[in-house]
Write a structure and sequence with these properties.
Layout (H helix, E strand, L loop, with lengths): L15 E7 L7 E6 L3 E5 L6 H19 L3 H4 L12 E3 L4 E4 L12 H4 L2 H12 L16 H11 L4 E13 L3 H9 L4 E4 L2 E4 L11 E12 L5 H14 L3 E6 L15 E5 L2 E2 L6 E2 L24 E5 L1 H4 L12 H4 L4 H14 L13 H9 L5 E7 L5 E7 L3 H11 L3 H8 L2 E5 L16 E2 L2 E2 H5 L3 H12 L6 H5 L7 H4 L6 H23 L16 H15 L5 E5 L7 H16 L3 E5 L3 H6 L2 E6 L8 E6 L1 H6 L4 H7 L17 E7 L7 E6 L3 E6 L5 H18 L10 E3 L6 E5 L12 H5 L1 H10 L2 H6 L23 E4 L7 E4 L22 H6 L2 H7 L4 H12 L16 H13 L7 E6 L7 H16 L3 E5 L3 H6 L2 E6 L8 E6 L1 H5 L5 H7 L3
Parallel strand pairs: 3-21, 3-22, 5-20, 20-21, 26-32, 26-33, 28-31, 31-32
Antiparallel strand pairs: 1-2, 1-4, 6-9, 6-10, 7-8, 7-9, 10-11, 12-13, 14-17, 15-16, 18-19, 22-23, 24-25, 24-27, 29-30, 33-34
Helix pairs in contact: 4-18, 5-7, 15-18, 18-19, 29-30, 30-31
Length: 986
């Protein structure tokens, strides 16, 4: 069908983007007009066609046209999108998409690098940074020979001085050749390890000890007449000492001109090096301050800040005894008997019990088993399977040394892979996680080092930058609705001197601008050194949004996918103000969104529907908010107008005597909290962004349950213990990670329903006659699939400077299977027809197949009735993938008490879909199970039986429990941001 254009087709189309005949995916040949330079929101139920219109039609065509305007040489380096199925699109601008794809998985990518703040920081530190010695902390300066001479003349006028060259600093060896070389050059005396020495008869030095050697170059009485002699002596000292020289005060005149005591040394350097300790900075350039450059990176961790180490939590099964095999890697090794025999003999030698759990051993005994006996030998007796035996005396190296040696010595990839499962990233022992080498990490700007700045949050970094410039309070804090951070790194910052401000003003302005935009989009709690791979899709999107706002482009069409995801309602209004800045600059902003506040503040609303999949794809309303509210077929309008609503539960399930309690949780910013979860309830964990929700639930609670109940190799966050876990039979964690990374994976294969359907086809009469088994109907293995395309249905043609083209397979015509396989039908449908069906259609077809129907109905219940059974997993959003996982768990026979953990399950859901999801979750709770949800959506929060609210703010100012109880009880707490918003809807 063709939807009429809105508004009237008459008039000037220059101010409109006009789409005619859009048929991408489920769009039903629609026509729509969108105002340019406005804030436009696409709404509708999940699967109604919003993303198909916004991303796969408007953005795809805008980006494609721009790329086609470039030369063929340039096009081969740029990804080009497929031309959308559409009659025409007029009025398009160059398009930029800001979606929710997770950040880079490169461990070197951080918040500071992806925002390019790090590039400006490196430039700033290179231009105005002040180096310091990492050993003594003294300021290090590079000086020319003449500057050194001038300083000595000024400090030591009328003094007698000694000019010394530090030729050896902290180096092993006898250094006999050095003494001989010095004598041959005429330097007969000096100091060795601080004591006077005659180089003609030098002391005998221990080869394996570290030594300091200084050569006396000259003794001079300082005055203006012997400048040339002083210059020559200093030049010689610098040459012999590798760029360093030391001046000794050897007498005190009647009128002293220096504070240096007799016998004290003043060191100078031609390089950025400490004359006393030799700590060396090669140069003051931006590349030296990069942890991705060998010049600046810590040599131990190569700039990663972490090292892979064996984790005691993963290696040791603390509930097992030595006899039972408490060391997991040994237990799973072919040499398990050998390792166990050695450990038992060590235990016998030190009277360590082998029949009590490892966790109950005394600390000294644990240390012996894990870290070895040092040089103390033990008598070991070994006996082979053939009966031969032998004895040996040797130290016990310890479990961790043994594992490290095995990892180093083995040439087996399988062994390395097996041992890697017991390792975690630990802060580098040399740089402490700072990533830079010692000399670089002690360069300061306004008393702050680069690692200190990187470890600060966006809000703290903003305060630091402003403290460099001025002592006054900036109005940005009232704009952000935040108080200026105090204490910690911010407290030690000093205002820069006039010279530094003059040199660095442009760079500082750029850093401050980028930090402001990050804060304005609700990311003020992120630290600069936070890995990009740990950011959620919403956080990554808002970082890219902040970057785009900073570019201040005009005349661009921005397409955003739910920018409010992961944001607390407190921060939504500030985000909307920031989005308005894009339209104020003359850009068109198209946002796919479900958030009520965003919908009500849009300039123009395009609502698609009325339902999902084949029942969607129509334009229900295109115009103002009032037009949307009046649209009879619009689910969005019905919920916004109040015709439909998600009710507050009339009765909540009160907490019983059964609780699960995490004790003293200290993960990330959590402040040693005890978190108690009432079992048999639906529990919401809330709080502003960065308050510690994921640290509590995803990083601590979930791994603790999985490790204890299912013996999974999971490492929970720092905490002292968990009480009440014996009451739980099963733990299920449902996150938003993809259900598959290739197009061959889909909802049907993930849930297992496709296996049941294939078994059904294998039972047909024709299949039995031909001998077709269940595997014959798989498109992933040889047998019934089309071998020309390997069951993919299409093949890719590389077009060099043009975009690669996926061409429908000539043999199977895109149906994936051989002609013979497609001759097998069940109720008139081939196996290919089944894969093309939506879940809703399949529910009707298989309603009498109990096992199949159960899985399909569960997918429908969680709001996925619109997706095709064969829809590739790579095309599913994070929210859709999460609901597929939820459906997979729900259709399985439940354990007596199951503990469900969900992370923002409302991602990508309209109010209509949220209503459905809440009904499913309450049904799980009604069956006696526990559901814990990390969520911002207030309709979900108000439906919970119990709420744990964290805060009060994000980052270091969060991590505490602000309120807990029923939603009504949380709403009564003044300090709770969540409570304040709950009061408005309860």
């Amino acid at each position: 069908m063709t939807t009429p254009l809105a508004p009237s087709e008459e008039g000037d189309d220059g101010d409109w983007i006009v789409v005619r005949g859009a048929r991408t995916h489920n769009l039903r040949n629609i026509d729509v007009k969108i105002p340019r330079g406005k804030f436009v929101v696409f709404s509708g139920v999940s699967g109604s066609g919003k993303s198909s219109l916004a991303f796969d039609t408007l953005y795809a065509e805008g980006q494609r046209r721009y790329v086609e305007s470039l030369s063929s040489y340039a096009r081969q380096f740029l990804g080009q999108m497929k031309k959308p199925d559409c009659d025409s699109i007029e009025g398009l601008s160059p398009a930029i998409s800001i979606d929710q794809k997770q950040g880079s998985h490169n461990p070197r990518s951080t918040v500071a690098t992806v925002t390019e703040i790090m590039d400006h920081l490196r430039l700033l530190w290179a231009r105005i940074g002040v180096p310091h010695c990492p050993e003594c902390g003294k300021e290090v300066a590079r000086r020319t020979v003449q500057e050194i001479v001038d300083d000595v003349l000024w400090k030591f006028e009328n003094h007698g001085i000694g000019v010394w060259s530090p030729v050896v600093r902290n180096r092993k060896g006898t250094h006999a050749d050095l003494f001989q070389a010095m004598v041959e050059q005429g330097y007969l005396a000096g100091q060795v390890n601080g004591r006077e020495a005659d180089f003609e008869n030098p002391p005998t030095l221990e080869k394996n000890l570290r030594h300091d050697i200084d050569v006396r170059i000259d003794r001079i009485k300082i005055n203006r007449t012997n400048r040339q002699r002083l210059t020559e002596a200093i030049e010689i000292a610098l040459r012999l000492g590798g760029g360093t020289v030391a001046i000794e005060n050897i007498d005190r005149p009647k009128k002293p001109s220096t504070d240096t005591k007799i016998g004290e040394m003043v060191a100078y350097s031609e390089e950025f090096a400490c004359p006393e300790h030799g700590a060396f900075l090669p140069e003051m350039s931006p590349r030296v301050f990069s942890f991705n450059n060998p010049l600046g990176a810590c040599p131990s961790c190569q700039g990663l800040g972490v090292q892979r180490e064996f984790s005691p939590e993963l290696v040791i099964d603390r509930t097992n005894t030595v006899e039972e095999g408490c060391i997991r890697p040994f237990r799973r090794s072919m040499m398990s008997g050998w390792y166990k025999s050695q450990m038992v003999q060590v235990c016998n030698h030190y009277s360590i019990p082998v029949d009590i759990p490892f966790q109950d051993l005394v600390e000294d005994h644990k240390d012996i088993l894990l870290n070895g006996t040092g040089s103390t030998t033990i008598g070991f007796h070994f006996q082979s399977d053939r009966g031969s035996s032998y004895r040996m005396n040797r130290p016990w190296e310890g479990v961790f040394s043994r594992l490290r040696r095995t990892l180093t010595d083995t040439s087996s990839d399988r062994t390395r892979s097996r041992l890697a499962a017991y390792m975690t990233d630990e802060p580098c022992s040399d740089c402490g996680g700072m990533k830079l080498n010692p000399a670089v990490s002690r360069v300061t700007v306004g008393t702050i080092t680069l690692p200190e700045f990187s470890a600060s949050t966006v809000l703290e970094a903003l305060a630091i930058v402003q403290s460099w410039k001025s002592d006054s309070i900036d109005p940005i804090w009232s704009t952000l609705d935040r108080s200026r951070p105090e204490g910690g790194t911010v407290e030690k910052v000093k205002k820069l001197d006039d010279r530094s401000i003059f040199i660095g003003t442009d760079v500082i302005k750029e850093i401050e601008s980028r930090l402001r935009f990050l804060a304005l989009v609700g990311l003020d709690y992120l630290t600069m050194d936070r890995r990009a791979s740990t950011l959620s899709g919403g956080e990554s999107q808002r970082i890219r949004l902040a970057t785009q706002i900073g570019t201040r482009l005009t005349g661009v069409m921005y397409v955003l996918d739910e920018p409010s995801i992961g944001l607390h309602p407190r921060d939504n209004e500030r985000l909307l103000k920031t989005l308005r800045e894009l339209t104020d600059l003359g850009n068109t902003l198209i946002v796919v969104e479900h958030d009520e506040l965003t919908l009500t503040q849009a300039d123009w609303l395009v609502d698609l529907g009325p339902r999902a999949g084949k029942e969607g794809g129509e334009v229900i309303s295109s115009g103002s908010l009032e037009e949307l509210l009046a649209a009879e077929k619009s689910e969005t309008g019905a919920y916004l107008s109040g015709k439909k609503s998600i009710p507050v539960p009339s009765k909540r399930r009160p907490p019983e005597e059964r609780w699960l309690t995490l004790k003293s949780v200290r993960q990330n910013n959590l402040q040693d909290i005890d978190a108690a979860f009432p079992l048999g309830c639906m529990i919401g964990v809330t709080g502003v962004s960065g308050s510690g929700k994921s640290s509590l639930v995803t990083e601590t609670l979930a791994p603790a349950l999985l490790r204890t109940i299912h013996r999974a190799d999971a490492t929970p966050g720092r905490h002292d213990g968990i009480e009440g876990i014996e009451q739980i039979d099963k733990a299920i964690v449902i996150d938003q990670s993809p259900i598959g990374r290739t197009p061959r994976s889909n909802a049907a294969t993930y849930t297992g329903v496709f296996g049941l359907i294939r078994a059904l086809y294998a039972e047909t009469t024709l299949s039995k006659e031909r001998g077709y088994k269940q595997g014959h109907f798989s498109f992933n293995v040889r047998g019934g699939r089309c071998e020309a395309c390997k069951g993919a249905g299409s093949s890719m043609l590389e077009m060099n400077f043009l975009p690669d083209v996926w061409v429908t397979c000539d043999v199977c015509k895109g149906k994936r299977y051989t002609r013979e396989t497609l001759e097998v039908e069940w109720r008139g449908r081939t196996i290919h027809d089944i894969l093309e069906m939506s879940v809703d259609e399949a529910c009707v077809l298989f309603e009498n197949q109990r096992k199949i129907s159960r899985i399909l109905n569960t997918l429908k219940d969680v709001g996925l009735g619109y997706i095709r059974l064969g829809q590739p997993a790579t095309t599913l959003s994070g929210g859709e993938a999460q609901r597929v996982k939820l459906a997979t768990e729900l259709h399985r026979p439940p354990k007596k008490h199951t503990f469900y953990i969900l992370d923002e399950p409302t991602t990508g859901l309209s109010l209509f879909d949220v209503h459905q999801l809440i009904d499913v979750l309450l049904r799980i709770r009604s069956n006696g199970h526990t559901v814990v949800i990390v969520e911002h959506h207030l309709d979900v929060v108000k439906s919970c039986d119990w709420v744990i609210d964290l805060g009060p703010e994000g980052g270091v100012r969060g991590g505490g429990i602000i309120a807990q109880g029923t939603p009504e009880q949380v709403a009564s707490v003044e300090e709770s941001h969540t409570g304040r918003h709950l009061r408005e809807i309860l």
